[in-house]
Specification:
The complex is a heterodimer of chains A (913) and B (171). With 913 residues, chain A is an alpha/beta fold. Chain A is 26% helix and 17% strand. The termini of chain B are far apart. Classes of the chains: A alpha/beta (913), B alpha+beta (171).
């Protein structure tokens, strides 16, 4: 710690920090543009000028840029000095010279860092009468709008996009004051993190295109703290609503989880909430219109009449909803609703996390890892935000080297310079090339068995008690030795694996490596397919297959399916038979899907932005999401439909349900502490969801009735659908809207952190449920190496950021970026078949494919008798021979089983030479 | 005593003064152009809607009686998809006009807005939008702003240089 004097006041600050960060951590207002807490200092904008004095006697001082000035003991500076203020005001005036007169038609207006800083420095009147420089814009795809005129050349965008997120297609072009930030030519931004440009850009150059299509000002959005439902990481988000429609999703800071950034699936996947495919009304087959009350009565009748009712839970429903279902149908009738392999994998992972004695790191801890091994995952596609953290982890060697060279860690340009000399080891073993390969020390591609064998070999090299795979090739063996050596040197090594490969051996190999690591701090993290996969696995239940059997054996005759499309989980014919056998099938879901279409009774469930619940992310952190706006009648939260059907109706409120869930499952005991309950108030007021500037209250509904309705009452959460209430004392982790006086933009988060870029004051949201304990035996089931067979291929389904996740598929902007439905194959395999990229092939003998009669007529793909799928082939050089890769989760591939053995045939197209 | 008599005298004196009040509605006062009455939305000199749906009027409104939604035409021009003023709440303070960056929303000297049914006090865009420029005749926001709209690309607004050729290396 160092004691410094700012404007005559004495402060205690972190030694070695930069002065700007120190000032902001102290809560002082000092304008800046190019500095970003996650990206360090660049010194590009010249905005954070302060006067630094030589000593106590010095009265003149000199102008320094606070972001480039390290804090030293007994330093004396002045922010308020006239010269510094004048400099900052002049600087803004210069930056604003070419700034267009756009604020009223700019999506950034009202949450614009440039507006904030301009007001803060007092530049209120335009003196410049010359002509303004202009730029042409580019079309950057479905996510991002480009308006280059508004640029102030702070370089934040390229620093984030290129250096932080590893993108290559956003660059700076041009010279002197003509610099241009864009792509070489029009086209969608390739990076999976392009959406962050919206928040990183301090002006309106990059804005959210999906938000612009139904735009509202920040002050008009009703917001509540929420959790992203599009992958297992549980990033914190702040969705905004206006006029009953979800308008956008922005990042909500959580120092332990997502920090400042989200992935594009999380940011733009929200469109499904407004989708026309939403189930808006209850639907009873054979009845034209039914009301919610009638639906509820029918639901009761079904339950009463049933011999036994099967309940199928869901990894994308909250803990509470699953628990309510489990209580309703009884433990013996509760099935998890997971794919069979996935069920095994999640059970194993849960066992490892709870009893394996290895720490499961948060994303912040991932960023601090100094050696990483990824086994069988392309994390950019299976858990995108994790890939961004791993990119930062790869820089730790550079930070360590900088420490020895006395370079402060916030000196971004210098650290990037020495990065070429020192990079933390990152080893990737995957099925084919991954998006992180550019920073990898070494990569390995092979079938799932080969990846597992490599993992076992690494574990054996680290610790000879660990079993050794037999007959490992020389190349693999030396790679394993090199990886083991890299991991051994690390202080905080991290192993990443997950469910992408659908291989138990890969997960067990990952555990063996983590267990074999020397030292106190091995870390092991698994990616999972859905937002509550781990929560559901902790809760535990029977397999989906057992549900099918139970129905077949006539032990049950009705089924309740909670937010789950069974056709994504099990072979189509089995699901068909299951639903046909069931006398009554009730589906509670928010979107129409194949399962819901077959159900006798559809109950409209509220989407994540309309309901509340607790989710457990892949780290084992329980986090609560809250409704942003009341669920539009007659939709209700799934848990409300389910608790409403309970015999004695013991849980009227969500808090009661959470408490009961915590009591029933000791492993989930901590979930009651995730957030305060509905009785939480501050000075008698609930926390307002609407900002204090919320407009149009007396006009927005006046077209329906001029007499204003009362504000909807929220009996379930500590929030109110209102602007009434004090925001000042709300713990930052619970704040719906981030705003501070003078700081309308998201940069106001500085005011709510312990220090810039650190944890939120009063703690980050969420409670970790799992801490390391116990130890497991070595896993010894080492599979044999994968051997490609003549003319037989194995299908591998790999996740893709745009397309594999069920809900975001229904978002229009994501739909524009969907991964193509094609088949990837090895060039040698393609050569033997005589297929070149872009040509059609037929996949024959798809095991488990449904009979024709069972498919709907409007199905996308025509299946011929022998279950043949015609598909475009693409070549992937990195894919091992004998494997075919398709994108998991795309509806057209839904019926293809994982690891299916197939044969291929080239399709000769007539009329083509 | 004396003071009371003087007060009586002062009051009685007013019997012979010309009254300020008029016999409304037979007689009407002349109102100044800047009188704050019924709100209108105006058009720019080219006859296009001036309102760009920036929401500043709505946020300035102390009684929150303005609600609107931004929409965008095929040429990138912002306009209000709907624009609603609940005049039964409006207090004619004129803050909306002050806040308007495009001179779109203006208050007029018309104050005669009585209705038997309060619902009729809710004005939609078609009730608010007039065909003229109102009090401010010349201003056209899009001629000043940098946004590209139909008929105006980059470099064609007032005080703008033609777009930079980023591929040139010339200083």
């Amino acid at each position: 710690m160092a004691r410094i004097e700012i404007d005559g006041e004495s402060y205690e600050v972190e030694d070695g920090d930069n002065l700007l960060s120190a000032c902001l951590s102290l809560g002082l207002d000092l304008p800046y543009f190019c500095w970003h807490p996650a990206m360090g200092s660049a010194g590009a904008c010249r905005q954070c000028a302060v006067i630094q004095y030589k000593d106590a006697e010095d009265s003149r001082g000199r102008l320094v840029m606070a972001c480039m000035t390290p804090v030293t003991g007994s330093m004396r500076v002045s922010i308020a000095a006239e010269q510094a203020r004048e400099f900052r005001s002049d600087n803004i005036e210069l930056l604003m010279i070419n700034h267009p007169h756009d604020c009223p038609v700019c999506e950034e207006g009202g949450e614009c860092h440039l507006q904030d800083m301009t007001v803060m420095t007092g530049h209120t009147f335009r003196r410049y009468r010359g002509r303004k420089r202009t730029h042409n814009n580019q079309n950057l795809g479905p996510f991002i709008n480009h308006e280059m005129n508004r640029c102030i050349a702070c370089y934040r965008c390229v620093r984030f996009y290129g250096e932080y997120a590893g993108g290559h297609d956003l660059q700076v072009f041009g010279v002197h004051n003509n610099v241009y930030f864009g792509r070489f030519e029009d086209g969608a931004l390739e990076s999976e993190f392009s959406g962050n440009l919206v928040e990183v850009c301090p002006t309106g150059v990059f804005t959210d295109k999906t938000f612009s299509a139904h735009y509202s000002r920040k002050w008009d959005l009703q917001t509540a703290p929420s959790i992203c439902v599009h992958c297992s990481l549980g990033c914190n988000i702040a969705p905004g609503e206006r006029y009953g429609e979800l308008r956008r999703v922005i990042n909500r800071y959580n120092g332990d989880v997502n920090g400042y950034f989200l992935c594009d699936r999380g940011r733009f996947g929200y469109g499904f909430v407004n989708s026309p495919e939403r189930i808006r009304k209850p639907l009873l087959k054979g009845h034209p219109e039914i009301t919610a009350a009638m639906a509820e009565k029918h639901f009761h009748d079904v339950l009463k009449a049933a011999k036994a009712t099967i309940g199928i839970g869901s990894p994308r429903a909250s803990l509470e909803a699953n628990f309510a279902l489990r209580t309703l149908v009884g433990e013996e009738n509760f099935f998890l609703g997971l794919d069979d392999t996935e069920h095994t994998l999640l059970e194993t992972i849960t066992g490892m996390m709870r009893n394996g004695g290895i720490h499961s790191p948060s994303l912040r801890e991932v960023e601090q890892a100094d050696a990483v091994l990824i086994l069988g995952e392309d994390v950019t596609h299976s858990a995108p935000r994790l890939a961004l953290s791993l990119r930062q982890a790869a820089r730790n060697a550079a930070f360590a080297l900088a420490g020895t060279m006395h370079i402060p860690l916030w000196q971004d340009a210098s650290i990037r310079q020495i990065q070429s000399q020192a990079r933390s080891p990152l080893f990737i073993a995957s099925i084919c090339a991954t998006r992180l390969d550019d920073i990898a020390t070494d990569t390995y591609q092979g079938g799932p068995e080969d990846i597992a064998r490599l993992g076992f070999a690494i574990a054996h090299h680290l610790n000879h008690e660990s079993p050794e795979p037999a007959g490992l090739g020389n190349a693999e063996n030396s790679l394993a030795a090199a990886v083991a050596a890299g991991l051994k040197l690390a202080k905080r090594p991290l192993i990443v694996s997950g469910t992408s490969c659908s291989s138990l051996a890969v997960i067990q190999a990952a555990y063996n490596v983590a267990k074999a690591l020397p030292g106190q701090n091995p870390q092991l993290t698994f990616t999972m397919p859905e937002c509550n996969s781990l929560g559901l696995a902790i809760m535990g239940g029977k397999r989906l297959q057992q549900a099918f059997e139970r129905m077949n054996e006539n032990l049950a005759d009705s089924v309740i399916i909670l937010e789950n499309d069974l056709y994504r989980r099990a072979p189509g014919p089995n699901v068909d038979l299951f639903l046909k056998t069931a006398a009554h099938a009730v589906v509670i879901d928010s979107l129409i899907n194949a399962t819901a279409e077959k159900a006798g009774l559809q109950l409209p469930a509220a989407a994540f932005a309309e309901s509340e619940g607790t989710l457990v992310n892949n780290e084992g952190r329980a986090q609560r999401f809250f409704p942003v706006y009341p669920a539009p009648e007659p939709a209700r939260g799934s848990w409300q439909w389910l608790t409403g059907a309970l015999e004695n109706f013991q849980w009227r409120h969500h808090d009661d349900l959470t408490a009961a869930c915590a009591i029933t499952f000791p492993a989930l005991a901590a979930i009651t502490g995730v957030s305060p309950g509905a009785d939480y108030t501050i000075k008698g007021c609930k926390i307002p969801r609407q900002p204090h500037r919320y407009s149009g209250r007396t006009a927005m509904h006046s077209d329906i009735n001029v007499r204003e309705p009362g504000q909807p009452h929220d009996a379930e959460t500590p929030f109110s659908f209102s602007m009434e209430g004090a925001m000042a004392q709300v713990p930052p982790g619970l704040l719906p809207v981030i705003w501070a006086p003078g700081w309308d933009s998201n940069q106001s988060i500085n005011k709510f952190q312990e220090e810039t870029g650190g944890h939120l004051r009063d703690g980050d949201a969420g409670v970790r449920l799992i801490e390391k304990s116990g130890s497991l035996e070595w896993f010894r089931d080492i599979p044999a190496a994968f051997k490609p067979q003549q003319e037989v291929w194995r299908i591998i389904r790999l996740p893709h950021i745009f397309g594999s996740e069920e809900l975001s598929l229904h978002s229009p902007s994501i739909a524009e970026r969907l991964s193509s439905s094609c088949l990837f194959m090895n060039p040698l395999d393609a050569g033997t078949l005589g297929v070149s990229a872009g040509e059609q092939v037929a996949i024959i003998n798809l095991a488990g494919s449904p009979e024709d009669s069972a498919r709907d007529e409007d199905e996308l793909i025509d299946l011929e008798e022998n279950s043949v799928l015609e598909i475009v082939a693409q070549i992937d050089k990195t894919l091992p021979r004998g494997l075919l890769v398709i994108t998991a989760g795309l509806p057209e591939f839904q019926f293809i089983n994982y690891w299916t053995q197939v044969t291929l045939k080239k399709i000769h197209q007539e009329g083509l030479s | 005593m004396l003071s009371q008599l003087r007060s009586l005298w002062e009051v009685l004196k007013h019997t012979f003064v010309k009254p300020d009040t008029v016999e409304y509605p037979e007689q009407r006062r002349e109102l100044f152009p800047r009188y704050r009455g019924r709100i209108i939305l105006t058009r720019d000199p080219d006859g296009e809607e001036r309102c760009v749906a920036c929401n500043l009027c709505a946020v300035a409104c102390p009684v929150d009686c303005i609600a609107l939604q931004k929409a965008e035409d095929e040429n990138g021009r912002w306009y209000p998809g709907f624009f609603r003023i609940n005049f039964s709440r409006c207090i004619m303070c004129g803050f909306c006009e002050e806040a308007c960056p495009t001179n779109a929303i203006q208050l007029t000297p018309d104050f005669e807005m009585c209705e038997y049914d309060r619902q009729n006090m809710v004005y939609e865009k078609q009730h608010l939008l007039i065909d003229g420029t109102g009090k401010y005749h010349d201003y056209n926001f899009y001629r000043v702003a940098g946004m590209t709209i139909g008929g105006k690309t980059k470099g064609q607004a007032e005080n703008e240089l033609p777009p930079v050729d980023v591929k040139t290396l010339l200083p």
